[in-house]
Design a protein that fits this description.
3-stranded antiparallel sheet, 11 strands, alpha+beta, 357 residues
């Protein structure tokens, strides 16, 4: 059920130190069991933020998170790296959204993936398999994984259901890299992160010098330690750490710059205001759950409210509303502690209601 969104005049007070948002996250962190960093802003930048709890357990328990703490973004990579690069290619006329891939991209010609469109991939309506299982199906060689993704049968007819799958982002990664002529980490830095001044954002593995300000994720049986500065997502790890589905690390400080740019302040983001406008409207043709391009309408809201979100499996998330002209982020490393997500879901929903209604 929707709640009335607070007016813009109330946001600074909500986001003030010791204010309602700060109290909500402080209490939520105790329930979630993981430290958290949060921030809220509008087209002018950050209005307020805070951090609570510890960076982790064991040796990490003495470290506190902050706006300069790098988090494994997990699926927020789809928004922070892949989505803007697709927008740059779209703006330059190199990325048709509605022509089946097999008609214009040679690697997809004659393969099941050739039947889908870029719009369907971005809206998760392409009908691709809902799981990855790359190592089991294709082995560990990146070339074999690429061939396997291109040749995989479709799970259902394109355009008939909304089904979130990392395969869509992996296939788009190959396409964007082919069209852009460089790996995704190079393109994302060139086209998005550097132009926006996102100096903290990069793909891993991270240099040892950066690990003191990096949140650890899950315990890894293979290495006998916590993943720290190495991507948590197994598919992205298999692909060398650079993929459109996961792999990027960033800070609240940098994500604030990114989300401010999504609200298109002058001189406008590198991918163009038209890409944002197209992406932040319903692209699923009445199918549910309603999605834009890459972005999801926030659970608990109606599409007409125009509040979009993306979450990361590690415990990250951010929201944006062009209608209200505001954004919010909430970063945790929940998987460092466990995979029980209900407490984090409750905190995310309460946080979203307070900022966006």
């Amino acid at each position: 059920m929707s709640h009335r969104a607070p007016g813009a005049d109330r946001l600074p007070a909500l986001a003030a130190p010791g204010g309602e948002l700060d109290r909500l996250v402080r209490a939520g962190v105790r329930t979630v069991g993981a430290g958290a960093v949060w921030a809220v802003g509008d087209a002018g930048g950050t209005l307020g933020g805070g951090s609570h709890g510890a960076l982790g357990q064991g040796p990490y328990a003495r470290l506190a998170p902050g706006p300069d703490t790098r988090y494994d973004l997990a699926s927020l990579t789809k928004i922070v790296a892949l989505w803007p690069c697709a927008g740059v290619l779209r703006r330059s006329g190199r990325l048709p959204l509605d022509e089946p891939l097999g008609h214009w991209w040679p690697p997809a010609a004659g393969r099941p993936s050739g039947a889908v469109t870029v719009r369907q991939l971005l809206a998760h309506t392409a009908g691709m398999l809902p799981y990855t299982r790359f190592e089991r199906l294709y082995g560990r060689d990146p070339a074999a994984i690429r061939a396997g993704v291109l040749a995989a049968p479709l799970h259902r007819a394109p355009g008939t259901a909304v089904e979130y799958t990392d395969r869509a982002a992996v296939l788009l990664t190959y396409l964007v890299e082919d069209l852009g002529g460089a790996p995704l980490d190079v393109l994302a830095a060139r086209w998005t992160w550097r132009p926006l001044g996102m100096a903290d954002t990069r793909y891993g593995p991270l240099d040892a010098a950066l690990l003191d300000r990096t949140a650890p994720t899950e315990y890894d049986e293979r290495t006998g330690g916590y993943l720290h500065g190495v991507v948590h997502d197994p598919s992205a790890r298999l692909l060398g750490g650079v993929s459109g589905n996961a792999g990027a690390f960033s800070t609240a400080r940098d994500l604030a710059r990114f989300l401010t740019a999504v609200l298109a302040p002058p001189p406008g983001p590198p991918w163009g205001a038209a890409w944002t406008e197209e992406s932040l409207r319903e692209q699923t043709g009445g199918l549910r759950p309603a999605r834009g391009l890459s972005w999801l309408y926030a659970p608990g809201t109606e599409p007409a409210e125009g509040t979009f979100v993306h979450y990361g499996f590690t415990g990250t998330g951010f929201w944006v509303s062009r209608r209200l002209g505001r954004w919010a982020l909430l970063l945790t490393n929940k998987v460092h502690h466990d995979r029980v997500t209900q407490s984090l879901t409750d905190l995310r929903n309460a946080y979203r209601r307070l900022v966006f209604g």
